[in-house]
Design goal:
This protein is an alpha+beta fold and 354 residues long. The chain has 11 helices and 10 strands. The chain has 2 domains: 189 residues, Butyryl-CoA Dehydrogenase, subunit A, domain 2; 156 residues, Butyryl-CoA Dehydrogenase, subunit A, domain 3 (Up-down Bundle). β9 and β10 form a beta hairpin. It is globular, with a radius of gyration of 21 Å.
């Protein structure tokens, strides 16, 4: 292995060990009630995992987007109830604009392309507008906002306490909050450099694809384990050919989702065919989530839907994450439009290039 892959392997090992030691059924059940786990956040923040890929000069941990991708895959595997992906994306926004990344959990917006207006009042920027279903807004220490001013786009950091936040959630009970800003004063702001609504959607979709890949791996692991332990008609259910066939199909779905998500991270890091790669990853991981969750629950039967069993923490996230930052239907339409606009001669190269 080269130095980069060696470092990434150590990062994955460290993240896996940390989450394995600190994420358990009790924590996940408490997070369903409280919205997140502050204790896990403190532990993860001490290890600087939320700021992997954010430049050190901006207050981040350094590393590449592929390093962050590896961490997000592990976080998805353990259903970590913290805004790890959101903090990393918000940190990227701040670093792109030359701003320092503050300590603590971060949220960012707008996640759905809403327009936030910014106007000058003396030396201060005032922000007004509304954003729907902002991930983790009510637990964030700071909210990083892409806003539009007469001079162009700006990235601004605001205190969520100055905003009106209406609590909401997704299927997995993760915070997805509506936020209203009415002349909210920015703590700091700078011109947006490379941060656009399209770029935020792209990074958000990639994060969800990577996290779904990890959650699928966990669901497969639980299904295989259960099949080797559960007996029916005097045999382990994993010995039945029908179960073996479904688990093999599940493994294929997982492999495809992981490959697509990691490939998309590499494409976005290189800045080459990023939209094509991320769209394919989001579509493929969402399809795998649909099939994988179905197979996992079929194998488990009734126990798979109980609060006492771990499977639902993964499958609820799979069902929730597949629609966030664009569903597979939305990304398929966008992918089709892009390929059609490129013309017939561009189709084969697009399908076969690295």
């Amino acid at each position: 292995m080269n130095d980069a892959s060696d470092i990434r392997a150590m990062l994955v090992e460290s993240a896996t060990r940390l989450l394995n030691d600190h994420v358990d059924q009790k924590m996940l059940d408490a997070a369903k009630r409280d919205g997140w786990s502050p204790a896990l956040w403190r532990t993860v923040e001490e290890a600087q995992l939320p700021l992997v890929s954010v430049p050190e000069e901006a207050g981040g941990a350094g590393g590449t987007l592929s390093d962050l991708a590896a961490v997000l895959r592990v976080a998805g595997r353990y259903a970590a109830p913290i805004p790890l992906a959101e903090t990393a994306i918000a940190g990227w926004m701040l670093a792109q604009s030359g701003l320092k990344v503050p300590a603590g959990p971060l949220a960012f917006g707008p996640a759905h392309g809403e327009k936030i207006a910014a106007r000058r009042k003396g030396k201060q920027w005032l922000l007004s507008g509304s954003m729907k279903r902002v991930p983790w807004a009510r637990v964030a220490g700071r909210l990083v906002v892409l806003a539009s001013a007469s001079s162009g786009g700006i990235v601004a950091c605001v205190d969520p306490k100055d905003c009106k936040i209406t609590a909401g959630g997704n299927l997995a009970h993760e915070p997805r909050d509506d936020v209203v800003l009415k002349n909210v004063a920015a703590i700091e702001a700078a011109p947006a450099r490379g941060t656009t609504h399209a770029a935020l959607r792209l990074r958000g979709a990639l994060a969800r694809a990577l996290m779904m890949a990890g959650a699928l791996e966990r669901a497969l692991e639980l299904a295989v384990r259960y099949a080797t332990e559960r007996s029916q008609f005097g045999r382990k259910i994993g010995q039945f050919q029908a179960i073996q066939q479904e688990l093999a199909r599940f493994a294929g779905e997982v492999a495809a989702a992981v490959a697509a998500a990691l490939s998309a991270a590499g494409a976005l890091e290189r800045g080459k065919d990023a939209m094509l790669a991320v769209a394919c990853a989001k579509i493929r991981s969402a399809q795998a989530a649909q099939e994988g969750a179905l197979i996992a629950h079929q194998v488990h039967g009734a126990i798979g839907v109980t609060d006492e069993y771990a499977l639902h923490h993964s499958t609820l996230r799979l069902w929730a994450w597949r629609d966030e930052f664009g569903s597979e239907t939305a990304w398929a339409a966008e992918l089709g439009r892009a390929l059609a606009a490129a013309g017939p001669k561009a189709l084969w190269p697009a399908l076969t290039r690295d």
